[in-house]
C-alpha cells in the first residue's frame, strides 16, 4: 500500500491515506476517537496480509490515541466537527464540536479526501455499542455486515450527533456511510476474523 495523501496532527503526528495502484473508491477509517483504538489495529493487521483494493485511513486521531482520550489535542470531538447543516457550537466537554465547523486539521484532511477521491462507500470503525449504524443509502450493505459480525442494524444511534461525519458524508453528500460500532469488551484479536471478512466484502462491492 502506498501513502496517497498525508497531513500532520496538532501534535505533529502523521495522518495518512493508504491505497494501492488500482484502489477502489471505497474508504475505511479508523480512530475518529482516540479512546477507540480497535480500528487502527484491525486495519494494520489486515494490510499486513492482504494487497487491498480499498482506501484506508488507519488512524484519523493519533493525538487522541496516544492520550487515550476521545477528542483531538485541541479538545475537539472530530465526529462533531464536520460542516453540516446541524453543526452547533456546544459546551466544551468531550463532545465539543469545535469553535467553527471543520476547524480541525484532521477534519479538513478528511473533507479534502472525500472531495478528491469521491468515495462511493465509506466504513468507519468505532466502539463500543455493538451495532451497524448507517447514514444515506447504505441499509443493504449494513445488513450484509450485520450477518458477518452479528450486530443489529440501526439507522439511528439513539442520541443527537450535530456535525457528525455520518450526517456530512451519508446524508448531505449522499455517500452510503457505515459506522461499525465494535464491542469494546471483546479482545481485539477476536474481532480480526469478522472484520477481515467485512473488508473482503467491501473488496468485492
What does this protein look like?
It contains six helices and eight strands; from the N terminus they run E-E-E-H-E-H-H-E-E-H-E-H-E-H. It is of the alpha/beta class and about 200 residues long. The chain has one domain: Aminopeptidase (3-Layer(aba) Sandwich). Strands 4-3-5-8-6-7 form a six-stranded mixed β-sheet. A two-stranded antiparallel sheet has the order 1-2. The longest helix is centred in the middle third of the chain and has 13 residues. The radius of gyration is 15 Å and the shape is globular. The two termini are about 20 Å apart. The model has no long low-confidence stretch (mean pLDDT about 95).
Question: Helices, strands, pairings?
Answer:
Elements: E1 2-8, E2 14-19, E3 26-30, H1 38-49, E4 55-57, H2 62-67, H3 105-117, E5 121-126, E6 131-135, H4 139-149, E7 153-154, H5 165-172, E8 177-181, H6 192-203
Parallel strand pairs: 3-4, 3-5, 5-8, 6-7
Antiparallel strand pairs: 1-2, 6-8
Helix pairs in contact: 4-6
What name goes with the CATH superfamily?
Answer: Zn peptidases
Gross morphology is globular
Percent of residues in β-strands: 15-25%
Secondary structural class:
alpha/beta
Q: Roughly how many Å is the radius of gyration? A: 15 Å
Percent range of helical residues = 25-40%
Largest sheet, if any? 6 strands, mixed
